[in-house]
Design brief:
Tetracycline Repressor, domain 2; Tet_transcr_reg_TetR-rel_C_sf (chains A, B); transcription (chains A, B); 2 domains; 70% helix; mainly alpha; homodimer; DNA-binding (chains A, B); elongated; transcription cis-regulatory region binding (chains A, B); DNA-binding; 10 helices
Chain lengths: 215, 215
DNA sequence: ACTTGTCCTGTCATGCCGTCAGCTTACCGA
DNA sequence: TCGGTAAGCTGACGGCATGACAGGACAAGT
């Protein structure tokens, strides 16, 4: 498990090579934000990076391979989302704040990386295991924390025994992800961000604790 | 607004032509279920339909054009989802049943059409207005009904005034759509359908009425 | 059989894909 | 300073999908 970056044909990449590789990744990332995934061509990425298509194929097997690379990076960042839930309280005013900050943090993360997350989502929905795994990695950080929170509340008798912590957490996280990826849609449809976030927080709070929050 | 089906070059299609066209749509539909959208090629669709690529281009400008066609059909079917909410009660046991049936109906609809809905979702998320419009058409049928339900309950004083009906309905519908499109994901992850549906119904009920259901 | 209009396909220019051999560049030890 | 070696890059090529066109096949009416 060395951090060795290798080319497709097995050579180890040096300083220059890594720079080129990174530049290709950056350009691909940018292209994903500005044009449909389906239309992203190797030749365009290469041109944008000021290199040739052949160079691209030295570092990545194909476009999807490069996308997976970017996705892994985002997944690493996403692991930090656990902080939004782990060890936070779910009672009283503090509980409401937990819900609010979770929503806030989640939506921001999604907006920062929306292009690549869209592609991950599609790949996962289409049944590609690699993308599915990455999606899990990102969402699990929050889902698992939320699942634990529910279990804890159940143990204390504050939440009904008959709800499934995993299903509840998964549903809520799926909701956050879906709303996040259609944020623009909501706004053009007439729902303002200012209305959206409190509502999501309310739903999260209701789902986890089963009670209305005390603001 | 005649129902006239036309070829790309303007001629009206006859019986035989319409049959060919429909066959191409069917084959495309099938291909979308079995392979990633990105990899669907005109030549494959044509081969599967027992015809030539040139024929495909007589009826559709490109793959996306044909996909939009299929999407419109699904949107028409989706309009019927209003029935799951319109005029249904949200109090007592009947309220719980409304929530359950909504979840059930929604998930079934999604599973029946998951391939095309995935593509619509992607197109919408990528900012394509045509796909966005279609997505709205499908989701609005439910969202608007739910929005009305919330407004009604607010008018009766049964729901807090400070929640935005549109944001709440939109969030819940987005959740249903997201969970639906990752149904397989949930199951391979260890959450059973039998757990998932009641949880979703619970969340819907909580979101709309603000109260736990009486089962 | 002939005509007319619909329907399909063979073919072609174009452009992207993915690979390879071979050239250039950087690093290093003598 | 000077090769030697490995990293890094690219031109060029066969292969395939695209999208356009003209012309052949076919059904229906006369």
């Amino acid at each position: 498990m060395t951090g060795q970056v290798r080319t497709v044909d097995g050579r180890v990449a040096g300083r220059r090579g890594q720079a080129t590789r990174q530049k290709l990744l950056d350009c691909l990332s940018e292209m994903l934000s500005s044009s449909p995934y389906r239309d992203v061509k190797v030749i365009d990425v290469a041109r944008k990076a000021g290199t040739s298509p052949a160079t691209f194929y030295q570092y990545f097997p194909d476009v999807e391979g490069a996308v997976l690379e970017i996705a892994e990076e985002v997944a690493k960042e996403g692991a930090g989302l656990t902080e939004l839930v782990a060890g936070r309280p779910w009672v009283g005013k503090a509980g409401w704040q937990t819900a609010e900050e979770l929503v806030e943090g989640f939506l921001d993360f999604w907006r920062r990386n929306d292009a690549i997350l869209r592609v991950i989502d599609l790949g996962a929905a289409e049944g590609d295991k690699r993308f599915y795994k990455i999606r899990m990695k990102i969402l699990n950080s929050v889902t698992n924390s939320l699942t634990d929170s529910v279990k804890e509340l159940q143990a204390k008798g504050r939440v009904d025994k008959d709800i499934s912590p995993a299903a509840m957490a998964g549903s809520l996280v799926a909701m956050l992800a879906a709303v996040a990826s259609h944020q623009k849609g909501f706004t053009t449809w007439g729902v303002k961000q200012a209305e959206l976030r409190p509502n999501l927080a309310l739903l999260v709070h209701l789902g986890i604790t089963g009670k209305k929050p005390t603001k």
